[in-house]
């Protein structure tokens, strides 16, 4: 199987896109074309000539950096949170051409939908449909309408719509259900008894997370405030992230989880299965907090590999009854579940099945059901 990834060599603070692209590389002969991947003399000849010379390919693959290039170009800071391995001016020069090439390409196409699916415009939905690409998306992540999510979250839905929900419902035969994947190198096998902190809250300060932060120690809250202030200043004044800064951010984030026994988890106003649902158990901590869309389908079970606690009263009770031996079982169950179902090696097997079905003309969409990756008949 041969795949061409058309895009830009970059790293984001959240490594999900990179991990998924590398997974494709585990199951195919993967070529890269674009700034940061390709030497300048070859880059200037264009992707058309590259495909003519190196092809044919079984799949052409892009992510949102190509697919919604026009939107990204209109952002005030297009590359905030990115470490770029190319000159930013190359994005302005090539991105629209790559987007058009992908849309006009007549072969099989893969689109890694690493963009905000809850705020997607009708224009982008039309582009997805027109592209006729197979879409790698969150996997049971958008199984509820805006109305249902508002009711379950208990607060008004932030700016958003049901456009992606309607797309996934209508074009399920084009959807490859790919939730967040955890690299084998990200797993931590240290026991809870060796961890210094009992409880922590990580991530953006959504309403439920702000409430959960009240249970952290005074020192933790002060440290968290300082980190958020640094992040705000960095976003406001920094033009580009360095590789050292990126590695330090990722390392500090993972270290917090690895040094904690109970780590709060939630998907924000969209009840989305964000990467924390997978990172926390993978790092050997007990994930505790809100359930998410597709919770049971993705393999999570309250009391077995996760602790559901929607209110601070529930969190207090869980913290009060904490003991290493009891909770170690939950932590190990969580880590084992992520390893079996959502690690990079597990995902490579799942994706290989789907891509082979596509090549055989028998793919009708994939989905998750009680921890099992399945294909529609």
Features:
377 residues; alpha/beta; Rossmann fold; 2 domains; six-stranded parallel sheet; four-stranded parallel sheet; 16 helices; 45% helix; 15% strand; globular
Describe the structure.
The protein starts with a strand and ends with a strand. A 6-stranded parallel beta sheet has the order 3-1-4-6-7-8. Strands 9-10-11-12 form a 4-stranded parallel beta sheet, sandwiched between helices. The chain has 16 helices and 14 strands. The longest helix is centred in the middle third of the chain and has 20 residues, at 218-237. Strand 6 (109-112), helix 7 and strand 7 form a beta-alpha-beta unit. The chain folds into 2 domains: 2-181 and 344-375, no CATH class; 184-341, 3-Layer(aba) Sandwich (Rossmann fold). The radius of gyration is 21 Å and the shape is globular. The model has no long low-confidence stretch (mean pLDDT 92). By secondary structure, the chain is of the alpha/beta class.
Secondary structure blueprint with pairings:
Blueprint: E1 2-6, E2 10-12, H1 16-26, E3 29-33, H2 40-43, H3 47-54, E4 59-63, H4 64-67, H5 69-73, E5 82-84, H6 88-104, E6 109-112, H7 122-131, E7 134-137, H8 146-153, H9 163-170, E8 175-177, E9 197-201, H10 207-213, H11 218-237, H12 243-258, E10 260-265, H13 276-282, E11 286-289, E12 307-308, H14 312-320, H15 324-342, H16 344-359, E13 366-369, E14 372-375
Parallel strand pairs: 1-3, 1-4, 4-6, 6-7, 7-8, 9-10, 10-11, 11-12
Antiparallel strand pairs: 2-5, 13-14
């Amino acid at each position: 199987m041969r795949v061409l990834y058309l895009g830009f060599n970059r790293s984001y603070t959240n490594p999900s896109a990179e991990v998924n692209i590398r997974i494709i590389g585990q199951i195919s002969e993967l070529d890269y074309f674009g700034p940061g991947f390709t030497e300048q003399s070859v880059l200037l000849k264009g992707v058309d000539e590259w495909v003519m010379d190196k092809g044919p390919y079984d799949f052409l693959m892009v992510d949102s950096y190509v697919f919604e290039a026009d939107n990204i170009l209109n952002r005030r800071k297009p590359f905030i949170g990115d470490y770029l391995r190319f000159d930013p001016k190359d994005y302005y020069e090539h991105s629209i051409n790559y987007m058009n090439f992908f849309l006009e390409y007549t072969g099989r196409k893969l689109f890694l939908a690493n963009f905000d699916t809850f705020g997607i415009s009708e224009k982008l939905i039309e582009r997805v449909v027109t592209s006729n690409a197979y879409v790698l998306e969150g996997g049971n992540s958008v199984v509820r309408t805006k109305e249902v999510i508002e009711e379950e979250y208990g607060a008004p839905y932030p700016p958003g719509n049901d456009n992606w929900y309607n797309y996934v419902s209508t074009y399920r035969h084009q959807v490859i259900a790919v939730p967040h994947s955890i690299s084998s190198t990200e797993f931590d096998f240290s026991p809870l008894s060796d961890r210094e902190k009992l409880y922590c809250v990580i991530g953006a300060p959504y309403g439920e997370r702000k409430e959960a932060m009240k249970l952290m120690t005074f020192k933790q809250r002060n440290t968290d405030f300082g980190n958020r202030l640094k992040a705000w200043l960095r976003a406001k004044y920094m033009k580009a992230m360095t590789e050292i800064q990126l590695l330090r951010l990722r390392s500090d984030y993972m270290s917090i989880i690895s040094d904690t026994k109970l780590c709060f988890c939630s998907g924000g106003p969209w009840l989305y299965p964000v990467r924390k649902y997978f990172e926390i158990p993978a790092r050997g901590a007990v994930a505790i907090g809100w359930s998410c869309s597709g919770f049971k389908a993705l393999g999570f079970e309250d009391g077995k590999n996760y602790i559901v606690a929607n209110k601070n009263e529930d969190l207090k009770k869980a913290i009060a009854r904490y003991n290493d031996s009891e909770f170690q079982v939950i932590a190990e169950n969580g880590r084992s579940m992520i390893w079996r179902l959502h690690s990079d090696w597990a995902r490579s097997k799942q994706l290989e099945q789907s891509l082979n079905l596509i090549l055989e003309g028998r793919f009708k969409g994939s989905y998750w059901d009680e921890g099992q990756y399945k294909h529609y008949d």
